Amino acid sequence: MKVPIELPSNNIADLAYPDIQAYLQHCDLIMIPMASTEQHGPHLPLCTDTVTALEIASRVAAINNMLHTPVVWTGYSPQHMAGPGQGRGTITIRASTLSALLYDISRSLIHHGFNKLIFINGHGSNVKVIDPVLRKIRYQTGALVGFCKPYMERYVGLMEGLMENPPDETPGWHASELETSQMLAHNTQLVKMDRAVKTLTHIPRWLPGKFGKKDGAPDIQFKGYSYFHFPMEHHEFTETGVIGNPERATIEKGEEALRRYAEHAAEAIRELNTVKVKVHNREFIDRV
After folding, report:
1. 175, 101, 167, 99: which is closest to 136 by C-alpha?
2. Angular region, 203: left φ>0, alpha ψ -120 to 50, beta rest
3. For residue 211, what pLDDT is reported?
4. CATH number reported for the structural domain that contains residue 86 in this entry
5. Does 162 map to a domain?
């Protein structure tokens, strides 16, 4: 069910506080898009993950007539820094900084009357550090806190039948077919397809040759089994920063992918909006 109120904008930052007060009379849920600013190969902009998060959150907000916050544009991306002076452009923040930032944003929103917070995440490595802060918010306040990952890496999910790349060309991984298609759908001027290059992963040079690496996960295979995990740098297993083949990307695929993700997430979030939540610790006292 849509929220029965006319909003001047779905972005809370565009509103004045009487608009927010009116919204809270009908809905206590808000989305927080979050992602990263990191290298995405030679053909995609650093904002690629952030665009994914904001596109999905804003589309869901429009479908459901709900609010979202401005996007959290930087995340946990230490593996994308490359060497000093190489100009890759990635801006990463420490796990503790990201946790503190998300905690303060959440406590501010709960302070104002929101009881349900749904993070819309566009960057895979944020998953590595998010659980403690989600639990902290829930345990301290009683708020409903959710984390949505509308993208494809190893899990095809909603993209079944849409992507053309075979699994060994990792269509949903970093700067490959899916991300390139979504960026084309968002803004073709930001995509330099003449620079797009197919790149498959390999093990870092410091590992023995009997090990193997198939995609962008921190997993390493030995004799076909993934029992090993190493803190690798992105450039150690892909020279270009790309993981997969972006050459089959199209605007149509990107628009369809964004549509599928947004409509699916919107339906789920409408269900979450029906949950009765009692916040027992609302005031953000420790805010200095």
Report:
1. 99
2. beta
3. 96
4. 3.40.50.10310
5. no
224-255: buried (b, 16+ CB within 10 Å) or exposed (e) per residue? eeeeeeeebebbbbbebbbbbbbbbbeeebbe
Tokens of 259: 């549509």
Helix, strand, or coil (residue 195): helix
Q: Residue 71: which of 17, 122, 127 has the closest Cα?
A: 122
Neighbour-count burial of 164, counting CB atoms closer than 10 A to its CB (0-12 exposed, 13-18 middle, 19+ buried): middle
Confirm if 183 and 51 have CB atoms less than 8 A apart: yes
Cα(199)–Cα(42) distance, integer angstroms: 11
112 contacts 240 by C-beta, under 8 angstroms: no
Given this model, what pLDDT does residue 5 score? 83
With respect to residue 189, please indicate whether it lies within any of the assigned structural domains. Answer: no
CB 257 within 8 A of CB 159: yes
The answer to whether position 62 is within a domain reads: yes
| Rounded-to-integer distance, Cα 147 and Cα 134, Å | 8
Question: What single DSSP character describes residue 212?
Answer: E
Query: Could you tell me if 195 and 175 are in contact, meaning their C-beta atoms sit under 8 angstroms apart?
Result: no
> Which pLDDT band, with edges at 50, 70 and 90, does 3 fall under?
confident
Q: Whole-number mean pLDDT of the chain?
A: 96
Global pTM value: 0.96
Task: Write the pLDDT tens digit of every residue in 106-126.
Answer: 999 999 999 999 999 999 999
> Is 1 a residue whose pLDDT tops 80?
no
Q: What domain range is 131 assigned to?
A: 12-154+260-272
**Structure-token match 């994308």, residue found:** 80
